[in-house]
Structures are given as C-alpha cells and as structure tokens.
Design a protein that fits this description.
348 residues, ten-stranded mixed sheet
C-alpha cells in the first residue's frame, strides 16, 4: 500500500539542509497505483499508455495559457528561475516553452576541471547504489532489473554491469530538462526500448518493483577507455520517459545548443555537453558503471545513509535511503584509483 500522505524529504547539496518535497499528483498516484492497479488492471494499463500520456501532456502543456499569464508568472508557478535562461523572459508564453527552456549552463552550471570526473547528467535528485551484494550501497532489483532495463538489445552489456554501481536521477517538473553527457567517450551502441509511461513520483517507484525498466527508454553505451575519454570503462546512460513525457529528442551539441545532432554509434561525446531533451513532464535518468571502476563523492554516500531524513524510499525499502538534490554537470564520482572527491571540490 502506498503511503503517499507521508512526507518526502531530500538533502540540498549546496546547503546540506533537509528539504520537504510535496510530489506533484500525490492523490492521483495513490489512486492509480493502489486502487486502479490492484482492482482494474486493464484500466491501469490504459492510463499508463503512450496515448493517455500524450493527451495529459497536451492538456497540461499545450492548451492556451489561461488569462494570458506572463512568463514571470509561469516561472513562479513551478518555482523555476528565469534569470538563468538563454532566451528573454518575453519568449516564455507557454508551459511547454518554460519546460523546454535552455539555460546558460556554461555560466550557471560550472563543471569540475578534472577530465576524469563523472558529472550529473541532469538537474535532479540522485540516489546511488550498487548491484554488488558485498557493497554497502547494495540495492538490487529495487529500481530496476538489469536485464529488463537494458533489454534483449543490450544482452551484450548485461555481464559488463551486473555487479557494478549505478545512480538514479529523478527529474521533477520544475527542473531544467536537457540531459548532458556525464563522461567523455565514444558511443558504441544506442537503441530504443518500448514500454509504458509510469509516473516517477517516489510512491510509484516504491509501489512497482523495477519500474524504471518498465517505461519507454533510450540506452546509450559509451566507451570511455579511448583517447580523450574519462577512462572508467563502459558507461550506460539510460534516459527514461515518464507520465506526460512525449519524447526523448537526441540533441547533442559541442558548442552550447548550436547545430544539434542525433547521437550515433562511433560519435565522440564530450563530458558536460547537451545530449538530449525530455518533452514534457517528469522523467528519470539511470547511469550504470562497470564494477570497481568508480567511487561516488563522499557527500553523496553519507547523504544516502542519513536516518534523519523522512524519505519515502527509506519507508518503502526499510533502510536509510535519501536523495540529494544536485545540479547538472556537478561532480558525482571519480575513477577508483584517484583521490576521493569531496563536496568542496565537487563543483570546481
């Protein structure tokens, strides 16, 4: 049973303060994942279909804005900061434009200068874990099943990541929704996997085991052991749709947002550059790492174990499991053979 009335808290990485989140659509999620899923599975399947997801997105993001709300009102309505945007405030006359906004990330999202540092692919709330049962971060089969997540098309990669580490990045509707490349390396595989359009509300993630591997997603495998790469082996970046996400558009650009390109096998991707855009709603990224190649930043590890945070993940999984709110391009890990990364140097 989903306890969506329970508070959900996370840790702000910059201030280290505990913040209480009110996940959007709590009552609807409780009704859908408790009542409908259990009593009317056919209806539940229909409500998490691509057709319904597109319809909800149209009503929420594409209908004319009532009373001609100003761009400032639209930004205030979701708690986002228009000052960091690339386009002027007058450009933002719809919910969709606000959701798909471009920011001056080269100024507002500074990146660690160490070429081997792994960075966050998104403005998001991160949970870290491991598929190795001997790890203190072991969380097997909670958010995804590895084989199901990568799918039959990714069978070549199952053994590569079977006992490796992972990070789950949960984007909320107020976030900047471009994904950026977390490492430098060459694309060896990219493919789409069909699936549903489940919510990424924490209660939904708890209610359905391996929910991340049930949604429609794009899998990109990056070889970082190449010239100019981050030298941490293979990395899988999985971009996952959610309720009201109509599409994942590959828009890789070396120079800010200019000349966007599809991501293709053989292409070299540079860490920190824009890779793709979620259209619209809330959504999730998952990074998979080979075993014994990386270690997560100290603050992310300690935050995940904090027992003073009222996290629904803690309540749902029966162990301390707290998210940290982080910015895209901020450092999350280093190669295992390098000095441990601290929060003080994490955003240099």
């Amino acid at each position: 049973m989903i306890q969506s009335t329970l508070p959900h808290q996370y840790i702000d990485r910059n201030t280290r303060q505990i913040v209480t989140e009110k996940p959007i659509g709590d009552h609807s999620v409780r009704f859908l994942y408790n009542g409908v899923r259990e009593s009317a599975p056919a209806m539940f399947k229909a409500l998490t279909s691509a057709r319904i997801s597109r319809l909800l997105a149209f009503f929420h993001y594409d209908l004319p804005v009532s009373h001609r709300k100003t761009g400032l009102e639209l930004f205030k309505g979701i708690g986002a900061d228009w000052h960091e945007c690339l386009d002027p405030l007058s450009f933002y006359d719809s919910h969709r434009k606000v959701f798909e906004r471009r920011i001056r990330y080269w100024e507002t999202r500074p990146m660690n200068r160490n070429p081997s540092t792994i960075v966050s692919p998104a403005d998001s709330r991160i949970l870290i874990g491991s598929l190795a049962d001997g790890s203190a971060l072991f969380i097997k089969d909670k958010f995804f099943d590895l084989e199901e997540l990568l799918g039959p098309a990714g069978s070549l990669w199952h053994n590569r990541f079977r006992t490796g580490d992972f990070a789950v990045f949960r984007l909320t509707p107020d976030k900047y929704h471009y994904n950026h490349v977390p490492v430098s390396g060459r694309v060896v595989d990219i493919y789409n996997l069909d699936g549903r359009y489940h919510s990424c509300n924490p209660s939904a993630l708890i209610a359905m085991a391996s929910l991340c591997s049930k949604n429609r997603r794009v899998v990109t495998i990056i070889n970082t052991d190449v010239d100019g790469g981050s030298a941490i082996g293979m990395v899988a970046m999985v971009e996952i749709v959610a309720l009201m996400i109509g599409d994942i558009v590959q828009t890789y650009s070396e120079d800010r947002y200019t000349n966007p390109q599809d991501v293709r096998p053989g292409m070299f991707l540079t860490k920190g550059c824009p890779k793709s855009l979620f259209r619209p709603g809330s959504s999730t990224d998952v990074l998979l790492f080979e075993p014994n190649r990386i270690r997560f930043a100290d603050d992310l590890v300690s935050n995940s174990h904090r027992n003073d945070v009222q996290s629904r993940f803690t309540n749902g999984f029966g162990r301390p499991l707290a998210e940290t709110d982080i910015m895209v391009r901020s450092a999350i890990a280093e190669p295992l053979n390098q000095p441990q990364l601290s929060i003080e140097e994490g955003n240099l």
